[in-house]
Amino acid sequence: MSQSTLTTKKSNFQRKNPAGFLEDRGVKYYQYLAKKAGSTNVETLVAIDDLPSDDSLCSAANNITRLAAFIAFSIGALTTIVSVWFEWKYAGRLDDFLYYTGYLLVISAMLALEMTVLFWLGLRTVHQLACLTGHHDLHDDPFLTDAYTVPNMLARAALEVPDPVIHYLGIDPLKHVPKSGLLFIGLLYKAKVLLSSLFIKFVCVRVFGKGGSRLGFAWVAIPVTGIWDAVVMYKVAREARLRLFGNRLARHITDEIMQPEFISQLSAKAKEGTIRAVATMMVLSQNHHPNMLVLLIELCKNFETDERCEYDNWADFLTLLNEVSLRERYFILDLLSVSAAFDGHLSRLERHHLRQAFGEQTEVYMLRIEALKQALLSGRLHKAKQLCLLDFEPG
Predict the structure, then answer these.
(1) End residue of a domain, out of 247, 262, 291
(2) What is residue 309's DSSP assignment?
């Protein structure tokens, strides 16, 4: 691909909002960890076939996840003990102003400590998982916007920062989400991040029980907060694994499967259908998951695109399926099923519309999607690679 074409395609990226403070700090710390591990400035990834077996990868990933969850439980419980101890020690022994002022200061300090440790733990956990899959701090790919380099994607997963809205080829993954729904999702996310631990530490203690029974209930907040933090860390590790394996598979598909001799078998319509298969799944999934965008970006390295084309139009995609040969149709359906699994779940829209495309092969393709989802989430990269086979056969 010529440099001018590369520059033009990269210019199609439009990040609606720049990286926030947390993401920026997270990327810098991730880069520090990568440099400390001696993994920066590495130009190539280790081939999937050269990585350890699925059993070894799965076992190591589970051990990393369990340790992170245990540490998260511990920090949640320990910081809560301090606030509960303060209440047990001074409730009814200080005047209201001093008591509530002190209580608020203690809770704020412990919450700040808890969040800081959890952010640190999340970043270290995703870096350890990245080392398992052979990922490195890749800055040499001129095609990727900085929003979707490995450090940025993993920093957002570790800090539970939402993925940015990226407009690429006119594709809008949120086109079917009502504006009111977007507002509700945004408010719900911010409330979860800012108030979840505070809610457990403070609100629940106030709502349940009075007097002595209230103090008794306060101690219950210790394991509850610990469990909550452990669950959050588990979800962080789970999302990091999904992003890492999806990123590897996207590169496998484009670098190892989409070779010139393979592409030469495709008609112009089939090449267009390749882009449409991923674009339509991005819209039907109704999110900006990086796995799907990276797959689309990598595919666009091998295919010419038209900015005037509405690639995310489902009706046009169904029409195209009837215009290509039967062999090409099966190839496009293979890629459609892979794309549907890449974000780790199937939305209601995906489940409804995919049946229209799969037709008589619906059952076999849906089973393939489910198997690929489970392989990605469980850390079985070699099995996931096998399920990403793109041939010209049904299923």
Answers:
(1) 247
(2) S
